[in-house]
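Protocol step 4 of 5: obtain the predicted structure for the target chain.
Materials: sequence only (see below). No template structures provided, no constraints applied. The aim of this step is simply to have a reference model before the mutagenesis design in step 5. Sequence pasted as it appears in the construct record:
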Amino acid sequence: MPRIVFVLVPRLHLLDLAGPAQVFSTAADLGHGWRLHYVAEHTEIHTAQGVPVRAELDWPSLGPADLVMVPGWRSPPLTDGPAVTEATAERLREHHRRGGTIASVCSGAYVLGQAGLLDGRRCTTHHALQDDLAKRFRRAEVVRDVLWVEDARVVTSAGIASGIDLALHLIAVRHGPAVAARVARQLVVFARRNGDAAQESVMLRHRSHLSDVVHRVQDLIDERYSQNLRLEDLAAYGGVSTRTLTRSFAEATGLTPLRYQQSLRTERATHLIASGSSVESAARQVGFADARMLRRLRSRLEAAKTA
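Step 4 output (structure tokens):
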């Protein structure tokens, strides 16, 4: 049962905390077992919006499958010195050294920078803080005007509501795009926000349309992307002919249903490979008969990025 630990800093923004916490809480309600913890250097944290929040002083025991997230707080973030003590910074470094993932929302990136976790890595933050973050942490590569950035198990997001996008991404990585879509629907949030194409998920990138039929079919593909899905069955599920589905899908997403499924498989396989799986193992887990098709699709994707 994985844990997510939220590290609370004085004057934190409520939505920076509440948005991601709701995403993981909803995932737990749907049967994915997340346990949420809130830790701080003081038992009571006063938020920027005036609501006090209670936190624990003692951290739970964490393993590589657990997440740590630092919500942001009211800017300017570091005018009064370091945001956290060296003891907290060392806890973040130690979790990352042991294979864990560290994430931040908005100005929470400053805590990651203080811990040295942004050195040599790509990162982002609120658009109003990007220049200051780059100035303070010169070894970091600040990517501007994107929703979130992931680099070697350090994940940073832009301002305030983008923490929800970040949390949905983390859920999609752990549990697949269908679970992330279910969580988004439970939260009644717009799960189709587009950011930088290199950073967003396949699910988000191809959901910015208004076709109910295509969304319905995408829901099925998201849930069963590792299975062999016949076009005839997808069309029947959507209540249209195969010809109508193919045309509508292309108009809405720019892809055929098969290419959409292949994109989901390739993205999921890439995450598995980054987590230590071999190419052959990742290919089998996402539904490819062997690694040849996966290698071909990944090569095509890399070529498209550099074109």
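Step 4 remarks: The CA atoms of residues 153 and 275 lie 9 Å apart. The beta strands are 3-8, 35-40, 44-46, 52-54, 67-70, 101-105, 122-123, 141-142, 148-151, 154-157.
Proceed to step 5.
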